[in-house]
Design a protein that fits this description.
By secondary structure, this protein is mostly helical. The protein has helices at about 10-20, 25-50, 75-90, and strands at about 70-75, 105-110. The chain has a two-stranded antiparallel sheet with strand order 1-2. It is flat.
């Protein structure tokens, strides 16, 4: 399991201690909640994509979290780089926009 560290100013730590009984527990719970929210959004989007894809032949898992077993997720950085490249290309040639596919934030590992 990856460990994430961060730094806060003394003022930020003081204010966080004012609103939370245990600041570290508060941050852990906040990050876990946000990750679970994203997991639910991504799983729902991926299941809908698979249901709409007439070429999809694999079974769709009943458990949303099992969707991640063969899913490759792009990082926010990767998505931003792709979006920036797409915008730069559109600025250079606005008429090419219709022909440019919107990059997918996910792909499925080949079986």
């Amino acid at each position: 399991m990856p460990q994430i560290t961060f730094e806060m100013t003394d003022t930020e730590a003081m204010v966080l201690a004012h609103i939370a009984l245990d600041p570290l527990d508060y941050i852990d719970n906040l990050a876990t909640w946000r990750a679970r929210l994203a997991m639910d959004e991504i799983a729902t989007r991926e299941i809908k994509r698979r249901l709409a894809d007439p070429t999809w032949t694999e079974p769709i898992p009943a458990d949303k979290m099992a969707v991640f077993d063969n899913l490759i997720l792009k990082s926010a950085m990767q998505l931003q780089i792709e979006d920036t490249a797409r915008i730069v290309a559109l600025v250079a040639d606005p008429d090419a926009g219709a022909a440019m596919p919107v990059p997918s934030p996910t792909s499925v590992k080949p079986t």
